[in-house]
Amino acid sequence: MKALGIAATGMHAQQTNVDVxxxxxxxxxxxxxxxxxxxxxxxxxxxxxxxxALTGQEGSTKPVGVDIGLGVQTSGxxxxxxxxGMLGTENQFDVAIDGRGFFAVNLPDGSQAYTRDGxxxxxxxxxxxxLQGYEIDPxxxxxxxxxxxxxxxxxxxxxxxENDPVPVELGEISLATFVNEAGMRALGxxxxxxxxxxxxxxxxxxxxxxxxxxxxxxxxxxxxNIIQQITDLISAQRAxxxxxxxxxxxxxxxxxxxxxx
Length: 261
What we know:
Distance between the termini: 20 Å
Largest sheet: 3 strands, antiparallel
Number of strands: 20
Number of helices: 2
Strand order of the largest sheet: 8-7-11
Number of domains: 2
Helix content: 10-25%
Mean pLDDT: 91
Order of helices and strands: HEEEEEEEEEEEEEEEEEEEEH
Radius of gyration: 27 Å
């Protein structure tokens, strides 16, 4: 009886579904987090009777076949890159991306990662860094005795030093976009990495066509919809229970067959 194995694949798939939903809920307050959903596909089919086969000498054919599916498997987890809400912080080093794009970050091993988390800080050398201490690329160095920093929507960073009324332009924050953002690999610490599936990063200035703008004094909230996640969690739980019930029913049928004398 194949029902036992088929239902087992269903339980495994729903467990994966619950794992993905749980991660979404856990990161409901993570800055710049993008929720994911599990995608599934059916497995191969066992064909017992082929559709179109001859059913008699007169040449008639069978309109439908007898195909028994062998279950389900997880085909991937799809990241939903919709815009999160804006949270005002009044911190001059907090920067949110409104639209498409990622901040580029230089990792200690020389590689680059990408993030939507713009909760920047200053290093001991005055460089603009992430909460993990990684420098953003291109680098921005804030001079000593800076009174105020201004970041335009186009990413231009200016500093007012001491009593000088004329700001000093320090550089520009650029944004990287990808053809397939869902194909990026999550590294943790709000970091993403480019892959063959995502394509190479395309550097652009905030406000360029297809590139978002930056908002100083704001952070992007997670795009997790808690109500939708709870609904999906209940649906996954019910599907898991039904697959469990299928195994119980198949076991009872096998037990009944074994008791026939």
